[in-house]
Amino acid sequence: MTQPTPATTPEAREAPIRVLLADDQALLRSAFRVLVDSEPDMEVVGEAADGAQAVELARATGADVVLMDIRMPGTDGLAATRMISADPELSAVRVVMLTTFEVDEYVVQSLRAGASGFLGKGAEPDELLNAIRIAAAGEALLSPAATKGLIATFLAQGASSQEGPDSAEYAERLAALTGREREVLVQVAGGHPNDRIAERLEVSPLTVKTHVNRAMAKLGARDRAQLVVIAYESGLVRPRAD
């Protein structure tokens, strides 16, 4: 799978990306630490064996990105992600959800809870490192098309009825968007990066970025992954059976 290019290069950051590892398997944490610390533009600032510890360390270390395992004893990754998302002091923290099975119902719940995206534990090292950089840059995490595809699968199965705002609230939120912002939202839900959206709508990439940022603010979305969830759950975009 081709990964998008992060918007922020290592040279553009004044300090290394601070990464927190949350996984109950010490061996995996050690492997991730070696990989992350081998990169000049990032560093591991802490390790957590469960979700509660991950939340505490996110506060204590000032982590930029948390690599969060979904299934952990005690407080799991899903609950921890909700705690991080709900804490105003951690609003800049981005969560990359790690899962053994990439097709996992918890992934969608994690995105709703505030995770920026997901990555299978079987991903290539370069994919993991690129995901960290993209998350730290505040851009779409991983391939937007991959995230959209997974969300669409579960929403098509009725997963959207489990939690999230009701249709009336979504209608109110969407009503606040301008026509152009709605057009951009549909394109984001289609898995298209800003450059491609700019070509389709015949505007500049900077204009697209501005519309995306405004849509996120109006809809209460942390990032593009959240915008995809909202687009599908609101019915603005319908899942397709490809």
TrEMBL record:
<dbReference type="InterPro" id="IPR058245">
    <property type="entry name" value="NreC/VraR/RcsB-like_REC"/>
</dbReference>
<feature type="domain" description="Response regulatory">
    <location>
        <begin position="18"/>
        <end position="136"/>
    </location>
</feature>
<dbReference type="InterPro" id="IPR001789">
    <property type="entry name" value="Sig_transdc_resp-reg_receiver"/>
</dbReference>
<keyword id="KW-0804">Transcription</keyword>
<dbReference type="InterPro" id="IPR000792">
    <property type="entry name" value="Tscrpt_reg_LuxR_C"/>
</dbReference>
<dbReference type="Pfam" id="PF00196">
    <property type="entry name" value="GerE"/>
</dbReference>
<dbReference type="InterPro" id="IPR011006">
    <property type="entry name" value="CheY-like_superfamily"/>
</dbReference>
<keyword id="KW-0238">DNA-binding</keyword>
<feature type="domain" description="HTH luxR-type">
    <location>
        <begin position="170"/>
        <end position="235"/>
    </location>
</feature>
<dbReference type="Pfam" id="PF00072">
    <property type="entry name" value="Response_reg"/>
</dbReference>
<keyword id="KW-0597">Phosphoprotein</keyword>
<protein>
    <submittedName>
        <fullName>Response regulator</fullName>
    </submittedName>
</protein>
<feature type="modified residue" description="4-aspartylphosphate">
    <location>
        <position position="69"/>
    </location>
</feature>
<dbReference type="InterPro" id="IPR039420">
    <property type="entry name" value="WalR-like"/>
</dbReference>
<keyword id="KW-0805">Transcription regulation</keyword>
<dbReference type="InterPro" id="IPR016032">
    <property type="entry name" value="Sig_transdc_resp-reg_C-effctor"/>
</dbReference>
